[in-house]
Amino acid sequence: MSPSPPTPEPAPSPGVPRRRAWRWPLVVLGLLVALRVALPELARRGIEHAGSDALGRTLAVEQLDLGLLRGRIELRGLSIGGATPGAPELGRAGRIALDLGWRGLLHGDLIVDALELSGVRARLQRRTGGSLEPIVLAPPRAPAAEADAAARAAGRPLRLTALRLEQLALELLGPDGSVEVEADLASLAIDDTRRVDGALSLGPVALRGPVLRLRRPRPERATAAPGPQEPAGEALAWKVASIDVSSGRVELLDSDIVFPVEVSAHAADAGSRADHRFPVELELGLAGGRLALRGELGLAPLAWRGSLEWSELQLDALAALLDAAPVELDGGVTRAELLLEIAPGPDGPQRLSLRGNLGASGVALGTPDGALDLGFEALEIAVRRIDVPLGGGAPGVDLERVQLDAPRLAAVRTAAAPATDAGTPPPGDAPRVRVGELVLTRGSLQLEDRTLEPAATTRVEELALSAREIVWPGPRLRDAVLAARLGSGELAVRGALGGEGDRLEASLERLGLRHLSPYADALGYRIRGGSADLRADVITRGGGFAADSELILDKLDLDAEGSGFQEAFGIPLGLAIALLQGPAGDIHLSVPVELGAGGSSSIGLGHALRSALQQAIVGALSSPLKALGALAEGASGLVGLTAPTLAFEPGSSELAGGAVDQLARLADLLASRPELALELHGSTGDTDAAAAGEAVPVALAEARAEALRGRLIEAHGIAAGRVRLGPPEHQGAHVRAELATVEPTPARTSPTPEPPADRSDPDAS
Predict the structure, then answer these.
(1) pTM of the model
(2) DSSP letter at 217?
């Protein structure tokens, strides 16, 4: 039997192979769709988890969108919670969008096409050590690992094509929780940011509407001593194509006074390269005026060359920013046009120098207690050069011209504060000042001394001063001319100081003395009238000076009750004035004063003046008294007065031979001193009794005094009222002539009719 033929297999169904072919693509597609749907949520949760761990605060993202094909990541509603549940948020961003360049990532380059942020609000707190809460820095890496990471970062290109920030609000809190800084920003745009070979390069930077609110710094709080600092690494090199700031504003948080500062700025080609300079323009609107800074800035090292100008700045508005200012400003504006430069000096350290013009007008200031009030109408300063070492040292000030118009100063002296030892300033720290020309016009000065009873007020008006080549320390000056009016007196000073043989000539004419009475009262004197003239020549000598002065007192009316004058000079004050006054009623005193270079300008000069004045009075009194033989002297000069005696013949009323010349000298003294008088005391003695051989009657003593009085009146022309007779004595055959002062004429007792009122005077009644 032959084998049967094989049975053919059934033909496959037409739809089965097609379903198997599409099964895996569908599975892959389904997985991709599921991943695309789940990936944003996974990424959102990953960002929340990683961010919360890093910040130690709850970080939440409301929505995250991914555009994988475009490389776009967008977050909405990102927030950082407070330190405790229910505490205010530390930060929030309404929207953050990031466009990545996939092709760059494939080659290991980080390229961000765009980074956009909007509605950003942040709150940071400064810790005592200086770090910011809640920012937590990564722990320091080992030096080798840090170097490797830095090398990898420097070698990896980074590029941010565009950064856009809209509506930023930032708060910075101090360690105590108080707000120190508030910042608002309308928009920030930065184009083409790159890092290549470790250098950071930024394209144009534009800020619009930045507002900065600051709290004035408080005294430093005590902090722990800082630990040892590690050496800083190499700074990152950077450059910016341009920076533009528009509609900026700076305000104070803790000021009751509205004091905004408007800011606009522009810089081009800025960078940190060594010795690189780039143009900068900064303009501020503040205190009712404008301030502008224009020039070239360098950062490595710090350098500047350009102009600094301001106009119409209100000084009282600027002063209002100071807490507990020692003076109060009321008005005044200032202006300036200066060239400013910061550059290394000849000795290496950097120096700030400026030159140009400064000015101010309408300035008035004073202390809150009214003890000081000063001001001026106008001040103009032409600055040749002001040089300030930034590393420390003495500044130098060289001014071409200073002109001050209508300055005024009113000061009140109260109880003196206890002296304090401020110590000697270190040598070389005093500024060196030179003024080429100083002009002062229409000045006034008022000093009120309330330490006296009653208070004394001294006024100086119509003060004018001009001088050239004023130098300090020194002082030195040339061609000085000063004029002023002191009450009814006229002061004038002319000359120079500071060189060998330089001289100042000073004069003071017709100074009324009554307004000096409060000062005299403190010494026990009372000035009722009189005036003074002063002539002085001051000559500089090796750092000190010598002054030859002539003081002229006219019609001095002085009472010295309780002054101790008689104890100091040996005679009563009234008699001293009568001896000093000339025929015209004036007193001339030569007062030499000399002060060496080592003398104190306050204590030494005052002591020298007092000693010189006392010496002048003693000298003026000694001259006529020595001629009369009536001076009692001691080791220190004049100590007393003895009455001169004129001898008579025994038993007679005739002068002895030697007494005639003595009488003539006495008459000359009376003639030259109109306020001087004599009181004559006749006397008899034993020689008179021996000559008469009997008791001498008292009438002989009286006759001798009367005879002497008659000769003075008739032979020498002395007024009868200036020679009076005193009680007789029994001391010898002479007459004792006691010096006295003219007795005042008795005041009239009958009333004097008043003149009729002037009816043309509107105040007359």
Answers:
(1) 0.74
(2) P
